[in-house]
Amino acid sequence: MLLLERFIGALSPEEIEKVRALKLTAVERKVLEAIVATHIYSKVGVETTTKQLRDTLEMSQVNLRFYSSHILKKAYSTVAPGGGIALLRLLAVRGLIHNFKNEIREQEKTIPVEHAKDFYFTAFELSIGTIYSSLDLACSRDLGNKYLSLVSPPSLDDTTAVELRLRQAEFLQRFTMQRNRSRTAAEFRSFLDGVPERLNGTGHKYAHYAFADAESYYKLLTNSASPEVPMLINRMLEILPPEIETLLPETRDMLQYRLIQQYEHEDDPERIFGILEDFFSVPRNDLPMRHYLQHGYYAMLTRRIDRSKQIFDAIAPKVLTKPPTTNTINYYLMMASHYMLTRQMDQAKQCLDDAANVNIGKGKHVIFELYHRNLQLVYYAMLGDCDFCLRIIERNLDWLRKGQHDILEGWSSTFHLIVREMITAFNLKRSANQKVLERMNRYKKTGPDGMMLLFYEELTDICNIKKAALT
Fold first, then answer.
1. How many structural domains is the chain composed of?
2. What's the pTM?
3. Are 174 and 205 in contact (CB under 8 A)?
4. How far is CA 130 from the centre of its chain?
């Protein structure tokens, strides 16, 4: 795929119109309009290969790359005026790793020697912060080594800091996208246990910041309720290195948001939504899309359905990118939930299908597959297709048993068993087993448990209405 195609696919409709308004030659205009058309077709499931694009334009591969490269530079200047780090930040945030690496090579050619150290440090930090499905560790490692080569001379603390950032990125990618979580966590823990000895007695802010960040993510993912996580994040805010504060000013906002996320381990979705609403009521530096999705999620969880739709509509242009990311899948699943809560079942089915058809190319993305299976069960239960629901339940429980999905299995298995009990009780015209139903109430009202509790309430209401109609 051409870099221009990738870039156009990651733009909002408004940004695409800005690019189309560029002053171009007749040939450039033809190429751009053809690529925009392929992007529009892809939205309805019609993919266009580069060969098909060449045939449409009656252009050789060399000429197509030549013209698209010229258009891309103009498009960059429109969407990220001034280029430089601002452009790299845009490409990293949107997961355009191929464009990011190419732009690094271009900027390396003209970067002044006195700015090279800051350039490579910033590029390195941006590269490890990109969405995990787009993470390229080889690229990050290369940028980290180039940064270290400009530190005169690099100390053990410098190399430890860079190694910490790389190992953390690798841990997050493997843990969030693959199934063998226990081994991944054990390997990362073994590495972290050896770090304090290397940092003993030093005042190197970047190294200590990197260590606190790595520890906070390890503890968050292996024990989400760990009281040490907010302590570590506060520690990072206290020792935020000047170079990060200056070169990556969005970092402080992101750390403050991570502190807010710790409230999710409380059992009070109303309080969490209020905190998020206050946080997003003032302009913020661009945060990863998953934070905005979380805002909409808690609006839904507190039954502020109209507000959740406003939030999802506002971020849709930035989430529905091409190539897609894990945020794309998450968005479709949240919209499917929204449509089911508002009984717009055709739209809900379309979102479930869209989520299933997203291909981001790396890893198994178990957590999203799990959410999809749960929502598919809810969808058919709400339609009243009891026989098909029972088949889905058995299939999904078998999948959960075979997959060894660690912490994910508990609440999802319980939800499936509860729905099976509800359907069986309804079919036999009897009351559901109270002990079975009480199992659902032991789960939190927040996080993934919260959404299943919400749908449990919805399905209970539906069953009660149908029972009343039969009596």
1. 1
2. 0.65
3. no
4. 10
CB 92 within 8 A of CB 100: yes
Is residue 96 assigned to a domain?
Answer: no
21 vs 423, more confident: 21
pLDDT tens, position by position, 123-134:
999 999 877 667
Q: How far is CA 471 from the centre of its chain?
A: 47
pLDDT tens, residue by residue, 70-122: 999 999 999 998 889 999 998 998 888 999 999 999 999 999 999 999 999 99
The angle, 0 to 180 degrees and rounded to 10, between the axes of the packed helices 84-93 and 116-128 is 10
CB 441 within 8 A of CB 403: no
Rounded Cα distance between 192 and 167, Å, is 9
Token digits of residue 351: 């979102």
Q: Residue 265, SS3?
A: helix
CA-to-CA separations, 46 to 30, 39, 49, 51, 140, in angstroms, rounded: 20, 9, 10, 15, 34
Q: Which two tokens stand for residue 330?
A: 């998450």
Q: What are phi and psi of 443, to 5 degrees?
A: -90, 160
Kindly tell me if the per-residue pLDDT of 318 is higher than 60.
yes
Measured distance CA(79)–CA(253) in Å, rounded: 23
Q: Within 80-227, where are the H helices?
A: 84-93, 97-108, 116-128, 137-149, 156-177, 181-193, 195-199, 205-222
Domain extent, residue 414, equals 364-471
Q: What is the CA radius of gyration of the chain?
A: 25
Residue 17 maps to a domain: no
Distance in angstroms (rounded) separating the CA atoms of residues 393 and 2: 43
Taking the C-alpha atoms of residue 48 and residue 64, their distance in angstroms, rounded to an integer, is 15
Is 221 within a domain?
no
Task: In whole angstroms, give the CA distance from residue 83 to residue 77.
Answer: 6
> Which two structure tokens, joined as six digits, stand for 402?
């075979």
| Model confidence at 157: pLDDT above 50 | yes
| Residue 390 belongs to a domain | yes
Asked if 308 contacts 278 with a C-beta cutoff of 8 angstroms, the reply is no
- Asked if 426 and 468 touch (Cβ cutoff 8 Å), the reply is no
For 219, 220, 234, 371, the CA distances from 230, given in Å and listed in that order, are 10, 10, 6, 27
User: What is the pLDDT, as a whole number, of residue 408?
Assistant: 46
pLDDT tens per residue across span 225-239: 788 988 999 999 999
